[in-house]
Design brief:
- Two copies of one chain form a homodimer.
- The first copy, chain A, is an alpha+beta fold and 420 residues long.
- Chain A has two domains: 291 residues, Aminopeptidase (3-Layer(aba) Sandwich), CATH 3.40.630.10; 114 residues, Alpha-Beta Plaits.
- Helix content of chain A is 35%, strand content 22%.
- Chain A contains 13 helices and 18 strands.
- In chain A, the strands form four sheets. In chain A, strands 3, 4, 5, 6, 7, 8, 16, 17 and 18 form a nine-stranded mixed β-sheet that branches. In chain A, strands 9, 11, 12, 14 and 15 form a five-stranded antiparallel β-sheet that branches.
- In chain A, helix 3 packs across helix 12 and helix 8 runs antiparallel to helix 9.
- The longest helix of chain A is centred in the C-terminal third of the chain and has 22 residues.
- Chain A is elongated.
- The C terminus of chain A is likely disordered.
- Chains A and B meet through strand 10, helix 8, strand 11, strand 13 and strand 14 of A and strand 10, helix 8, strand 11, strand 13 and strand 14 of B.
- Chains A, B: Belongs to the peptidase M20 family.
- Chains A, B: InterPro entries: Amidase_Cbmase (IPR010158), Bact_exopeptidase_dim_dom (IPR036264), Peptidase_M20 (IPR002933), Peptidase_M20_dimer (IPR011650).
- Chains A, B: One of its GO terms (molecular function) is hydrolase activity.
- Chains A, B: This is Zn-dependent hydrolase.
Chain lengths: 420, 420
């Protein structure tokens, strides 16, 4: 057949998103597919099935990353797109899933048009991007690019006590493909913004120039449990009070540093956790992010100094554990220029911006030219069942992805036809 | 036989304490016998067995309070002593248990001496004094004295979802004796201080003049869960931050009010409780105590005002629930004078003091002349497996209890023989 100009099929794309959202669906329209759970396995099986239906050669590596390759006229490293399909416990249906399924829609569009690209085209989804069950997050892409040793990742124990290696084997996704993998020719990740900027400013496409640096610290405080009624305030070693004081400090720290600095205490536990007992232990996590490495290090130093002061003031013992640490990552200018150019050629409004969230793309950026495409998240709501992106933006993002991947892979389209 | 002067038997008392401590024993020498659990049932069975061995007429009422009565020469209301045998999850072996078992030792001593008192003598233990599983605490004595309707108490749901009524029936302690019960002639409760005062000052016996007022509030905060990396601090409705801020405020409040005011946040929970998600819900408890009702009300008002301000500042919803509220309780002067007199006659040093903890005695004080005897707690450690009271103090407290109960019940001892 004569090759025609590839077009994404909106209905087909929306249907794929709905089908995957039905796996691990929770009240409110969201998804709960924590990494390597049975729900994650079901989601993986669904996407792998679609990959095979589209004629992709599917491979699974030792950390459970899945790559589906569409052959090109020549061999060599593929142009790759992809994201993740694991979710947080109260996740939405677009986070991660959208980028993977839009990648499949690009393949479907090329198939429909009967186009073979010069270079192979790959669609991937990476294991445990969220880090909601196993730390660090972005584990699959870390191992894929050689930034985290496989053995170390497999040994990680989750919040429920299970280990990555055992769970991978249990769900049947400990594959034979080697890691670290050969570097792709280029990598493009399409994702919902997960923040309020594009939605608030009414812009169609975010051209992501960098990813915020991330610092996750678990703080374990030990005091003395004692009767809540008979122990004078001055004689307490209250691990719970110390935890509360850290929560209050972390907010002050972020407000004071200003700029892109954000700080969150999302997880906490008291022991013995009884109304009339002074806690003898408290465990909490602090999530610090900044686009500027120097400022992020300053925030970390300020937190450490505060913990030292608190240790002396309340006579509690405080130990800390780094759960994750990533420096800010700049993307390749030639890639961001390309995304911006195609988006504008398609008549879409664009904005250059950093990513406030961590993404697999930041790991790929270490081994190949990489960039990201953002579409608006209504009210910036993310990691929440109310996460939502309008269909027109879902479609626009996929169109930009098709155009960028077609050019990178060498679909041989006349420039005039590229953006009909 | 000829009546002799009653003497407590130290070895027998220490053995009874050790035997009960073996039920629900946990590492470190403590006990875990949360109210109405299987461990509580086992403890109850052991103490009821001892009561029967001592010839007491044992009755169980509808809320599971157990009363063992030793007949007197005349009928009428008994002189009563007692406490509780339930513990917190990380409880010691003396809290509550000591008062009940010392009461049994008093009965044993009277039996040894072949003495019959004028008035009946009763030893009781009351259900769910700790409130660690079911709120409010002191539930058994509240129902016993008519301060809490039976039906309301039976319907209370515990932190594990079970209800008081179901658990009472399950462990076989929903008894036939009616509540509210007839008022005793007088009530004396012997207890470890659970605070550091007597130990620090090297005093043998605390003559308890009053019990601190207690206010327990559960605070439920609702915000919006959101991505920890992409949500500007200014756009957050962070339930977790609000909780931490309350913890910090409560400490400031207690420090500022000074005096006997204490304030504790012992229990907290975040939802969804993930490192990279802004909590959309936090639930915590605030325990406020003061010996002065006016100051306690001021502390409650200050907390309420602070919650209102926090609600506006962070745009979170905050609802509160009173888990328990007791005004400070003064004890009968003629009873405290009696305790002080007997303690001094026995050559023991004494100190008048308030109780920082809630006790069943404060409920009995509403229906009959009541007071409490305290013995030192080493380092004031309580609600902790390291709770400890020296044997000499355990024995001294029991001797005072014997002397006071003998006089109240009319053992007919010549004054000279009372304290050999």
């Amino acid at each position: 057949m004569t090759p025609s100009v590839p077009q994404i099929n909106p209905d087909r794309l929306h249907q794929r998103i709905a089908d995957l959202a039905a796996v691990g669906a929770i009240d409110g329209g969201g998804c709960a597919r924590l990494a390597l759970t049975d729900a994650d396995r079901a989601g993986r099986d669904l996407v792998c099935g679609s990959m095979r239906e589209l004629g992709l050669a599917v491979s699974v590596d030792a950390i459970g990353n899945v790559v589906g390759v569409r052959a090109g006229r020549s061999d060599g490293p593929p142009v790759m797109t992809g994201s993740h399909i694991d979710t947080v416990r109260t996740g939405g249906r677009y986070d991660g899933n959208y980028g993977v399924l839009a990648g499949l829609e690009v393949v479907a569009a090329l198939n429909d048009a009967g186009l073979t690209t010069e270079h192979p085209l790959a669609v991937a989804f990476f294991t445990n991007e969220e880090g909601a069950r196993f730390a660090p997050d972005m584990m699959g892409s870390l191992v894929y690019t050689g930034a985290l040793p496989l053995a170390e990742a497999l040994a990680v124990q989750g919040i429920d006590g299970a280990t990555v290696g055992d769970e991978l084997a249990r769900i049947g996704y400990a594959g034979p493909a080697p890691v670290p993998a050969a570097a792709p020719r280029a990598f493009v990740e399409l994702h919902v913004e997960q923040g309020p900027v594009l939605d608030r400013e009414g812009i169609d496409i975010g051209v992501v120039e960098s990813v915020q640096g991330i610092s996750w610290t678990e703080i374990d405080i030990r005091g003395t449990s004692n009767h809540a009624g008979t122990t004078p305030m001055s004689m307490r070693r209250d691990a719970g009070w110390a935890a509360g004081e850290i929560i209050a400090f972390v907010r002050e720290l972020a407000t004071e540093l200003g700029g892109d600095q954000v700080a969150t205490v999302g997880r906490i536990e008291f022991f013995p956790n009884l109304v009339n007992v002074v806690p003898n232990r408290a465990v909490l996590t602090v999530d610090l992010r900044n686009t500027d490495e120097a400022l992020l290090q300053r925030a970390e130093a300020r937190l450490a100094a505060h913990l030292a002061a608190l240790r002396d003031a309340e006579k509690v013992e405080i130990s800390t554990r780094k759960l994750a640490r990533f420096a800010p990552v700049p993307f390749a200018p030639e890639m961001t220029d390309r995304i911006e150019g195609h988006a504008r050629a398609l008549g879409l409004t664009t904005r250059r911006m950093p990513s406030g969230a961590g993404h697999d793309a930041q790991m790929l950026a270490a081994v190949c030219p990489t960039a990201m495409i953002f579409v608006p998240s209504v009210d910036g709501i993310s990691h929440n069942v109310r996460e939502y992106t309008e269909p027109k933006h879902i479609e626009a993002g996929a169109q930009v992805l098709l155009a960028v991947l077609s050019e990178l892979a060498g679909a041989g389209l006349p420039a005039g036809d590229r953006n009909p």
